[in-house]
Write a structure and sequence with these properties.
The structure holds two protein chains of two kinds. By secondary structure, chain A is of the alpha+beta class. Chain A has 23 helices and 14 strands. By secondary structure, chain B is α+β, with helices and mostly antiparallel strands. Classes of the chains: A alpha+beta, B alpha+beta. At the A-B interface, helix 15, strand 6, strand 7, strand 9 and helix 20 of A face helix 8, helix 10, helix 11, strand 19 and strand 21 of B.
């Protein structure tokens, strides 16, 4: 790298450090010289090492220091010296000599050991007396005392001790708190070839490069005389998170757009509905298994709602019981309005189609409606089952509509969803006749995938609601399946796990 | 739940009278409106739609399939000879008032045939008879029975017989308590004063419907040739169809059907009555609904492919079909016979104007404003629990509860949104802060003025969670939203147990309260295990929508 560019890209901490590298060779020296904190110098050294300006290495030294007892003995003399001195005049008992020399029992013990080994004492009739060898010891300073005095003034690297000092140190080290050693780490800085070039530049001057453009500089035009520090533009930056829509809502908004593009108007309605709308209006007999507890969520409070239109209720009752005047046999049972009042969480968006049909006037035909929304089924959560799911559904109210039109709408609808190949099979739904199961050809997996049901509403559904048995085309693809596939989600619960990391990282809906 | 049946390939092919290669078989089965689930060796597993109980046997399925592929089209004829025997219905429990009976002779039972008969019985009981709640079926060796047979009600203690696979006779209460089917279906007749029984002229108990047959009188084996069959239950029409399905399936196994007189006091029914129902089908209506241009002769031909007869402009509906309520049911069968794959699709040119709902437009606009201030949208369940709403929020409420929740974790519907958002935060404490989230969703509040007794307004909740967030920050976001929507608002200080006192306000627009803004109380955060300050607001979007319309 060009040395000048390198110099210009130095961070202020780096520039300040580099300015002192000529003389300072250790971290310690650099901290003293630059006036920066140790952490700052360390960071600068790390960055410079990454830029191949220098290398750092650490050396560890063992330093000999005087310890607490050592300090005391350096002044007062070592215990064995003091004991000998106390015997210079007269022989004394062990107790007396300890008292005289001002030594603890323990110190007396140690001293006796040292002195007897050197033949400095003798014991007779319970009394200690000094020997000629002992007297000789008192005449000059001992090696121990010399070392302690030396260590009092400055600690010594263990490798710098003379052989004799080393022996003395070893014997003192075995005694309590007289000397100690500590490990001292020193971080050395060695310049690389690049570094040696770099310090030739007057980096002091570079220290005055600008790290950030400030409003003041712009106000007083001082930026004109400044050079801006070069950044490393290749470096990874800390990630920031944007606001975004939940990915499921991105997908349902897309479904909404597909319907609107095909000329459909959106239907809206509550999630709790009476069984009247959810089942009875859709010609689902009151003893039909779908109305049993295991499939549908019923509401505890309020358990029942109202059936607001008496007239409509009578018409529904008639088709259920005997088919009304439609040429239908009906289900041949006694229809119970109380059963129809039971509140449920809607099991399908078809409930909205029923309500819409009930609200239409003849002048509104032909008309097309759609819904996108949550439906519910009473299931235990697991990887493939949710008790809340998205359904989308469309209806076409057109007196001239027929089965071939339904197939035409389906073909176009699924083509817009990205499945140009669709095939149709017979199916059964309680409220449509004929009924269709739709398979689409999966372009990647190259197989047929079941994607939803369709049909023409039975006259027993349409006539009571709309007033005339007009053919009403209806279809309702399951949308969760398309979403799982797009977002590559294997466990359906992950649609609503609301894991913030997942939400932040989830890809956008791009269709 | 779709019922499935298992077909033995050999039996099926001999019944159909034609062999098809596998691909053709698969294709034809699914285009008949049934679903081939899988083929394992000689077993073909097929799903049958619940409206077609007549196809829930090998015989019934083969009958429909043979007609569909053109081997044996048209109405199948079954000869019924009078047996001269009687069943007398008397003193029956009011909960189980009907019985129909018949006789089939000349069967050759093998293990395989017994398996087929058991399958028919079980499938019909589960689907058509709603898991025996609407009725039960019984089959008995004819030889042991002395006619006339009585169907009557008796006090439970008076009923003593040896149930199937038991070694000795026990009383009805013991059967309900100890016998496997007694335990399984006993709740159907729970609390009945009288239980229904079939007793023959010699006083032997045949069975106690719909629970279990007698081991001595009601167990068929390889030696059985002639059988007495019955269906009992709550709805006579359903039972007639049941006995029609059962007797025709046995006839297709090689049996001869004999009718019986079933006597209800003065009224006598001749069972089974296999005469077809006649109805009209209007060719013009067929063409209009299907978008076709076919002739009456085509209609006849197509109906015959679905096993119907056609005579003098009338359709003859087989007596085993229970699903023909209206002409449209026949028209669907015509469409199936025509072949869904043979219809030419057409997209009609009907001009309509597409339109998104106004509330959805507002919701989307609000979401995009909040994204503009860096918020992340979450999506939570409507179903929650009282613990999350009441105890953790320190805010007693009355929730709309579910009657039949499967777990206590999800047994109520939320009545405000902030608990749902705190639940999200509590499960994300390991992720990077700040966490700034929002959701627009429905809440559920009891309201007698509504059709269901529940109001379901949309609410927006915003929660900002992270170091340094305070009331000011929450109000700033609220203010940004109001400004973007061109609304002015007032805030008054209020008390709310979920927020820090003195740091919660009620926002109103033209005197209408629309939102709470505040700092979540530390005790609430502790309940949720959240160790970061959280602030935010909850805004009624439905009220806002009404205000904006004005």
């Amino acid at each position: 790298m060009d040395i000048k560019r390198l110099a210009e890209s130095l961070h202020p901490l780096e520039a300040r450090t580099v300015a002192f590298l000529k003389n300072a060779k250790t971290l310690h020296e650099l901290v003293a010289a630059t006036g920066l904190s140790e952490v700052e110098v360390m960071r600068a050294l790390q960055w410079l090492e990454n830029k191949d300006v220098l290398k750092t290495r650490q050396e560890v030294k063992e330093i000999v220091k005087i310890d607490t007892n050592g300090e005391l003995y350096a002044v007062k003399g070592l215990p064995e010296q003091r004991l000998l001195k106390a015997l210079e005049e007269v022989p004394r008992t062990i107790n007396e000599v300890g008292k005289q020399a001002g030594l603890s029992k323990e110190e007396v013990g140690i001293s006796l050991g040292v002195l007897r080994a050197g033949g400095a004492l003798s014991l007779a009739a319970g009394k200690l007396s000094i020997t000629p060898a002992g007297k000789k010891i008192l005449q000059k300073e001992t090696a121990e005392a010399t070392l302690l005095k030396k260590l009092m003034t400055h600690p010594v690297n263990v490798v710098h001790l003379s052989d004799q000092e080393r022996a003395t140190f070893d014997s003192l080290r075995r005694r309590k708190s007289i000397v100690k050693t500590t490990l001292e780490k020193t971080r050395f800085v060695d310049l690389t070839a690049t570094g040696k070039e770099l310090i030739k530049i007057d980096v002091r001057k570079l220290e005055s490069t600008v790290d950030r453009l400030t409003p003041e500089m712009l106000r007083d035009s001082s930026w004109k005389n400044k050079t801006f520090r070069r950044y490393d533009v290749c470096i990874n930056v800390p990630r920031i998170y944007r606001g975004k829509r939940h990915f499921v809502n991105q997908a349902t908004d897309y479904a909404r757009r597909v319907w609107i593009e095909m000329g459909f108007e959106e239907m809206e309605g509550p999630l709790i509905n009476t069984s009247f709308w959810n089942f009875d209006a859709l010609f689902t007999a009151q003893d039909h298994p779908v109305r049993e507890m295991q499939d549908t969520f019923f509401i505890h409070n309020p358990q029942k709602g109202n059936v607001l239109s008496q007239k409509l209720a009578e018409r529904i009752k008639a088709v259920h019981e005997h088919g009304g005047n439609l040429g239908s046999t009906g289900w041949k049972y006694a229809w119970d309005i109380e059963e129809a009042k039971r509140n449920v969480l809607r099991t399908h968006t078809t409930v909205l189609s029923a309500k819409t049909l009930a609200s239409l006037k003849k002048a509104d035909w032909p008309a097309k409606f759609f819904a996108v929304g949550k439906c519910f089924r009473n299931e235990t959560l697991d990887w493939s089952h949710l008790f809340e799911f998205n359904q989308t559904e469309g209806i076409v109210v057109d007196p001239d509509a027929n089965f071939r039109h339904l197939l035409g709408y389906l073909k176009r609808f699924f083509s817009k969803l990205g499945f140009p190949q669709a095939r149709f099979r017979p199916a059964y739904f309680p409220y449509t006749e004929p009924s269709i199961e739709i398979d689409v050809f999966h372009p990647v997996h190259r197989t047929w995938v079941e994607l939803g049901g369709a049909g023409i509403f039975r006259p027993e559904v349409v006539e009571p609601l709309l007033g005339e048995p007009v053919p009403v085309l209806a279809w309702g693809p399951g949308f969760d399946r398309i979403m799982l596939e797009y977002y590559k989600i294997a466990d359906i619960r992950d649609l609503y796990s609301n894991d913030i990391k997942q939400l932040r990282e989830m890809k956008e809906w791009m269709r | 739940m779709m019922p499935t049946i298992t077909l033995d390939k050999g039996v099926f092919e001999s019944l159909v009278g034609k062999k098809l290669d596998l691909d053709k078989l698969k294709d034809r089965i699914s285009m008949l409106g049934t679903d081939l689930e899988k083929i394992e060796g000689n077993e073909i597993h097929v799903e049958v739609f619940p409206n077609r109980p007549d196809m829930l046997s090998e015989q019934g399925f083969a009958r429909a399939f043979g007609a569909f592929i053109g081997v044996s089209p048209g109405l199948r004829k079954y000869e019924v000879k009078p047996s001269g025997e009687k069943t007398i219905i008397k003193n029956i429990p009011k909960e189980w008032p009907y019985a129909v009976t018949a006789i089939v002779k000349g069967l050759k039972f093998s293990d395989e045939k017994i398996r087929e008969v058991v399958q028919i019985q079980e499938k019909l009981a589960v689907t058509h008879l709603r898991n025996r709640k609407k009725g039960g079926i019984g089959i008995y060796p004819l030889d042991n029975i002395t006619f006339p047979v009585n169907f009557t009600g008796k006090a439970p203690q008076e009923i003593v017989y040896r149930p199937l696979e038991f070694s000795k006779a026990i009383s009805a209460p013991e059967i309900l308590e100890k016998h496997p089917t007694g335990k399984k279906f006993g709740n159907i007749c729970k609390g009945w004063k009288k239980l229904p029984v079939f007793i023959d002229a010699s006083g032997k108990i045949l069975s106690m419907p719909p629970i279990v047959n007698s081991h001595e009188m009601g167990k068929i084996n390889e030696k059985t040739k002639d059988v007495f069959i019955e269906a009992t239950g709550t709805d006579l029409e359903t039972l007639k169809v049941t006995i029609n399905i059962l007797s025709t399936a046995l006839a297709d196994m090689g049996g001869q059907i004999y009718s019986m007189d079933v006597m209800y006091g003065d009224t006598t029914l001749t069972i089974p009555d296999l005469s077809p129902r006649r109805t009209k089908v209007d060719t013009a209506f067929v063409n209009k609904l299907l978008g076709l241009n076919i002739k009456e002769l085509d209609v006849k031909r197509l109906l015959e492919r679905m096993g119907y007869g056609y005579q003098d402009g009338a359709v003859l509906i087989p007596a085993y079909r229970a699903d023909i309520l209206h002409q449209v049911d026949l028209i669907e069968d015509i469409a199936i016979a025509y072949g869904y794959e043979n219809f030419k699709e057409e997209l009609p040119k009907v001009a309509t104007v597409g339109k998104e709902s106004d509330v959805e437009i507002l919701k989307r606009r609000i979401a995009s404003i909040l994204i503009g201030v860096g918020l992340l949208e979450v999506h939570t369940y409507h179903i929650t629990n009282e613990e999350n709403h009441d105890r953790k929020m320190m805010h007693p409420t009355k929730l709309v509860r579910l009657a039949n929740a499967l777990t206590a974790d999800y047994d109520s519907l939320r009545n405000w949104m902030i608990p749902s958002l705190l639940r999200v935060l509590s499960s994300n404490t390991r992720h990077e802060y700040p966490q700034m989230i929002f959701e627009i969703g429905r809440v559920f509040i009891e309201d007698e003025s509504m059709e269901t007794g529940v109001r379901e307004p949309y609410r927006l909740a915003v929660i900002l969670c992270g170091p340094g967030f305070d009331f000011t920050r929450a109000k700033q976001v609220f203010d940004a939203l109001m400004a973007a929507l061109d609304l002015t608002y007032d805030v008054a200080e209020v008390e709310h147990p979920s927020f820090i006192p003195g740091r919660v306000g009620r926002a109103s627009i033209t005197k209408k309260n629309v939102a709470y803004i505040g700092e979540i109380a530390p005790a609430v955060l502790a309940n949720w295990g959240i160790e970061m300050p959280a602030v935010g607001f909850e805004l009624n979007i439905s009220d806002l929508f009404e205000l904006m319309k004005k």
